[in-house]
Known about the structure:
Elements: E1 19-23, H1 35-43, E2 48-55, E3 61-63, H2 70-73, H3 84-87, E4 91-92, E5 96-97, H4 101-107, E6 112-117, H5 123-132, E7 139-141, H6 146-156, E8 161-162, H7 166-173, E9 188-192, E10 194-195, E11 198-199, H8 203-211, E12 215-219, H9 224-233, E13 237-240
Parallel strand pairs: 1-2, 1-13, 2-6, 6-7, 7-8, 9-12, 12-13
Antiparallel strand pairs: 2-3, 4-5, 10-11
Helix pairs in contact: 5-6
Amino acid sequence: MTSLLNPKSLPFLDNPGPIPFAHRGGAGVFPENTLPAFQNAVDMGYKYIETDVHSSKDGIVFAFHDDSLDRVTGHIGKISDLTSKEISKIEISGFAKIPTLLELLEAFPEVKINIDPKADSVVPPLINLLKHTNSVSRVCIGSFSDKRIKQIRKELGSRLCVSAGPKAVMKFWAGKFCFSSSKTYYHCLQVPQRSGPVKIVTPAFIEKAHSRGLQVHVWTVDDHKEITELLDLGVDGLMTDEPSIL
């Protein structure tokens, strides 16, 4: 079957081999989503990093995973309830400050960034930031919210790389996906190996994705054996917390 989409036509997916992503900068080595973590990955040769974003109370986009601050900072409360000035005084694990997405874009201009918008409130400022920094072609948007993905894709257009949301992935996996290249808003399937007892990444899943011009990226893989098995299956990208393993 002829591929209906060409992932290589998107700058983000144009890579000579399977894409290695430093998940949250390499959270197994440095505190997650910190500039030192991302710098370490880049120093190791990574051209792709993955991060999550939330918005401050005053609309600044920060690279941060959780809704609340307590797990990695020791502070109580939601990040979205604080101003950017207040957030700038907080450190992750007493190690480094919470970076803004703008800082990441400027610090690593040659690096491509996979972005997971974690809340509805971050969508408008994220769209504005990517537009104003001319960064649309160097990012990919993936999220557990199909609504957020579609909203961002609608605003930023066809130059934006987009991963399928969870509903679209499960329809695809279950064979209930009606493919039309004119209606498909995504270019890759970013998935875990399993969802509970269900194995998602199978030879059939990968073959079907490739036949439709879609890449398959798997998260989060930190085991040598699993990495080898997935590469042998033909996956197009792997996200890891252990940058030295890829």
